[in-house]
Fold these 2 entries.
Entry 1:
Amino acid sequence: MTTLQEPLVQTAGVVEHERKAPGGFYKWITSVDHKVIGKNYMYTALTFMFIAGAMALLIRTQLFNPDGHVVSLQTYNELFTIHGSMMLYLFAGPFAFGGFANFIIPLQIGAPDMAFPRLNNLSYWLYLLGGVTMLFGFFTASGAAAFGWVAYAPLSSAPYSPGPGPDLWIVSIALVGFSGIFTAVNLVTTIFYLRAPGMTMFRMPLFSWSMLVTGILILIAFPVLTAALVLLYADRHYGAHFFSVAGGGVPVMWQNLFWFFGHPEVYILALPFFGIISELIPVFSRKPIFGYKGMVFATLAIAGLSTGVWAHHMFTTGTVLLPFFSALSLLIAVPTGIKVFTWIATMWGGQIRFNTSMLFAVGFIFAFVMGGITGVMLASPPIDFYTHDTYFVVAHFHQVLIGTTIFAGFAGIYYWYPKLTGRFLHEGLGKWNFWVTFIGFWITFMPQYLLGLRGMPRRIAIYSPTDGFTFLNRMSTVGSYMMGIGMFLFLLNFIISWRRPRPAGDNPWDGFTLEWATSSPPPAHNFHSLPAIRSARPTWDMNHPEHADAVPAVTGGDESAQ
Amino acid sequence: MRNESRVYLGIGSFFVLILVIYFVWSRESTGSVLLLASAGLGLLPGLYIGWWSRRMQQRPEDVDEVAPRDITGVVGQFPENTIFPFTLGVGAWLVGLAFVFGLWFAIIGLGFVFGAAIGATLESKRASLSERENRV
């Protein structure tokens, strides 16, 4: 145990007690430091992203030609199932609330660590082991799960999906779900109880606000999924009939349960990345955020609304209340619109620095608005009836999710990489990374909208040459390879910074929030001293007292001198 | 603490609102139960934190202007490196695999889980006794 004193008063605050710290591999396994765990999460999530991305390229290669023969039909089903599951459960969520949040939140609110460091470590191991379990399916005789990432009943029942693959999928998601719940408990507790003195709720950086709301959403959504998985497992093995009509069950109940998790999940994936964008757009525009409180309330409104719209994925089942879910889904565009407006208004008239991070942030706004607008279209039942389960929907959610997790996520990586490692990523290569990915992104997904409108259903492995889908599919495949090259450039950038480090200094971007007030990488338990917190931009106030937007400080920041 | 409870209460009351509208309008059971549970999840912690916030003094992180006397003292005790979360994680994982590959996995897994529980308890006890203020 380490007892921590308040760092403002006692500069050498950490009272280490005499025990020899372990080193090397054992240290990595046993570390309860939020920074080590956060990095572990990020590297693991990115690894899963590369694996799932490779699956996406295989899928696109199969669809390059009509009647493609790259993989068998069964393998194709397994590929899109595990691609979706890995991207959603193992990459996008954990990357944000396990990786970024773990590393950044305690630094941003001036805490020495997460509230429950050992629980934090446990949730990483559950995530890693659970995630790997999902891949085990490929090594079983009957293959991995092949029912799509949504696992609709009755396709996911024992007769239609036999073998250990689906069970491994269920166990994997359950373990990762528990890991998410633990992380959420940790995040909410940390934000509520470990803020630095003077860091009131309405001075918290917007990323911390986003993560608080994400944590609450996780606590609402993930238990529902875990419960649904238990029911599904009981159906498959113990002869229960929750989701089978034969025994008096209701298959649509699975959809209700799943999407009650699934739709908040979409915002669990999106909100952290909104937070990242809200952090770095003000920094690179050299302006405070436009409408801080508006952003906070928009985040809370998204949290509320996102839980009330689950059945808009089920319009075509004919068992849902169309006007209710349509209205709420359309309403969600309002807080999201507030956010987009705020980002643009923040940039308006600012001294914008277009480095890689900012490029990714602006690219995110484009991609997200495109995905968001098609989302508004899909929220109206007549259009949804026409486009449901076509490539239109595929293009829509890929634009939203890649827009948030890849573009905003990479903006965050380029922004916080100096804080993580004390090094820069290469700017020139980073710009290449952005442009190749960005152009590839549009070439991949714009044709898919058209394919969807022409009636190409999703989750099909082959199409006929006479369907007229060939050209657009080829375009989409070429685009996806471009995105693959873009990702490879990122990997290259990463390796270059690892082999030839370029030191970044503690505060390379002249940042606003507390994480830039400590060294890079931060010391054990984060802070040797904290600046006085008088506004939402404490580090800015400390470094630029002439421009400080805080209430003027009587003593010039050092309160212990009073 | 007032604002912390308002975050939960705000989200919770929104669920109550849409629960009422949804239930009256659709009479559908699954969604109504889920919304009810969500409303409870929002209101329960919100009311609890709100209840506490009336009974405790304002914390230094809740006030705009921090007085120097508010920022001295102990932040908390933080653990050092420990193997037991890893042990517990492996145990939970093996118990999970038992649902796929057979019961014998669970026997090994539970061994890890109980080992981790005992080990972590002893470790915590040892660590807290090593702190000066916890010594009797």
Note: The first strand of chain A starts at residue 2 and ends at 5.
Entry 2:
Amino acid sequence: MSRTVCLSARQIGVIVLLYSIGTTILIIPSGLASDVKQDAWLAALAGVVLNLAFVWYYLRLSRRFGGATLIGYFRKSLGRWIGGVFALLFLLFSFLGASQVIYYIGDFSITHILPNTPMPAIHILFVSIIAMGLWLGLEPLARAAELMFPFVLLMLFLLTVALLPQVQLVNLLPVLESPPPRFVKASLTLIATATLPLAVLLMVFPVHITGDPKKGERMFLLGALIGSIVFFLISFLSITVLGARATAVYLYPSYILARMINIGDFLKRVETILALIWYITVYVKASFYFYGFVAGLTELLGLKSTRTLILPGCILLVLYSLVVYPDQAYSQLYDTTAYVPFAFFSAVVLPLFAWLVDWIREKLRRSSPPPPAPESARRSGAS
Amino acid sequence: MPAQPNPDSIHSQLDDSLSHMKQAFGFSTDLICRELILGRKPGCRMALLYIDGLAQVSDLLQSLLSLLTNTGFAEGAAKEDALQTVKRTLIPEGDVRELERYEETTDALTNGSAVLLLDGSAAALSIGVAQTEKRGVEEPSTQSVIRGPREGFTETLRVNTALVRRKVRNSRLRLESGRAGQVTRTDLAIMYIEGIADPAVVQEVRDRLNDIRIDGILESGYVEEMIQDSTRSPFPTVYNTERPDSVAAALLEGRVAIFVDGTPFVLLVPALFMQFFQAPEDYYQRADFATLLRLLRFLSFFIALLAPSLYIAVTTFHQELIPTSLLISLAGQREGVPFPAFVEALLMEITFEILREAGVRMPKTIGQSVSIVGTLVIGEAAVNAGLVSPAMVIIVSITAISNFVMPAFSMGISIRMIRLVMMGLAASFGLLGIIVGLLALLLHLCSLRSFGTSYMTPFAPLLMSNIKDTLLRIPWSGMLTRPKPAAGKGRNGGQPNRKKGGSSS
């Protein structure tokens, strides 16, 4: 894999931001509200703190990579075969993640934007521009994200400001009604959707970042911080404008939020225009999820170019995104139950284990002075 | 030294070399050979060759003939020195060169120089007396301004370079010449300012120009297509202009200009997306007004790109976006129209494109009839005939007008092509199709490069210091640094100069 691809620190910040709010702002308010009702905004607030904690964990982890990607690090610390198994499990996580995201955008489109269009058509269309982005490479993708970022921010700002007149703080009462276990579960669900997928970005960060690594880490953290503020804001608006019950009932409450905008009977029905936010953020999320899969598999198989796998990967992605969730009810249940431990296993436990092994090895190496020569030879062969 | 090591070197016998030259031109009737005898006694035979119409030899001949009887010559001088003597004492022209090979002499002749062959000398003199028909410096027809210089480039390379030199009076302004086109041997020149232009870009331009392999170059469009980064992109990555002030401004920003003989269009590289939204006049008018104009151009860009597709998407898929009263009136208008909105829009767009093409190619005298027919097919008559709805007529008209707002014609062409794709996407996927189309467009734009610079600079990658002359045009007092990617480091030392060059010349 070529190491010549270079993104700037600012670009990685923008990508982290768009990546962590893609799908999150679309579905999370609903999931939170069904768990903890009007306390959803508090769960989101707790999510902000947890989000930053996990991002800090990823940044610390990435410092150990030493010029490798996450997949490379697995094999470096666990050896060729066990590391390979870990890498495959992680690739499964990114592939599933990508297809879930595609499912959501397809489902969102046929629910709200294009009710009469068949879902496969939308999936094929959307996956084809993901393929185009990956084909062109990381740099154009990052630049496009950088260019779209101001528009997303502007529209989020407009959405927030236009909804302020309809905020009813009474919807927040009573505060802290829900029992602590449900509260914890809600926060974990949020983290599993918003933060843990960031592990896939470790295929890009810090390998493909130019300039000062400290600055890259700062922008990563900043992107995650702003992203978490955005999903907190959306959750808060959903609860205060729509009320806890309605938020839980709708699958995509933030879209309903946009539908509520009505300023003097003049500015209304703008939800289809604001849908641009969701499409852009979901596009970035799906692209980098899928990049993680394609680039990881390329590295694992020792292929020369990621381009080889784009077309077959995209065909798989279209097909799998059509069957990943049979229906909306299943998707809601899966996301709040099975997905959470799965995400924690793939995106937290696997890297943590690799880190632990790496750490123990380093300790052992320090205690026994002569450095094992075959170690480095094997490492260079594996990477 | 052996007498004839190379079959291409000029014979020392005048008769041999003359016949060789005539054969080289296949006895073309416009090759004139004027034989002269210089000096008395045996005299020195010589022949003046030139191509009729390309060279203006009357002055030269007059000077040669008036000195034919020069007594100091011929008698004293040995034959070997004759050439030097002629060169030093007899020729009134400035540009005189010694040639040794036939290839050089034919080159000189086709360039419009006169060639002097001397008996007994294995060399020839080329005398720069080229005199081609020149069009005067006129107002450019493609990029006109309300305020600003009225001069435009002509078809003559030397006139064009002089026009720029007159604006940038600095010895750091470099001009390098070359040839391209294996048959036409067209003159090319590149111009840049040493110390401002990036040497890597200049070298890249040189390399790419040297790599051109083509029979003929008749317009700078040939060169543009041969040196651009991506041939498959609908977007132009080379800028062309007819205006010396645009070229001077671009040079000051660190770009490289490529002049091609025979066309008033000069190429500028690297060309960025933003550049196609900038008109020279932006810099001659008030900064705030120029900024508003720029924003208007961006709006026009999106209208020209998206208006028909938005209309299709909204009327076909998203009727809820239209206010109810407008929706009822639109539905009423479309009641009698037999086609779906997409077909309706496509018909109108194609009709307009036909009209436009006809208007460009048609003799000017018939222009009026085109405009009459045009108002019939895109207008009231088409609506009355029940072929299209009135709203569609308005959409197509505003699209067409917006397209003409683009200061650079080449960008307008790209929009026209992409508009049709967008219409197809809108017809099949509504707003989602448009969003996907825009995403694809954005990705494509972000992947483009022009001579090493990202096409979307300074937006992506973001260069804060360059934003000052993009969407905005801040006042000159605020433009303290040169644009970054193309320029040398440091503050804009030339800024006051640029200010004067911008507003007074």
Note: Chain B has three domains: 14-127, 157-271, 283-453.
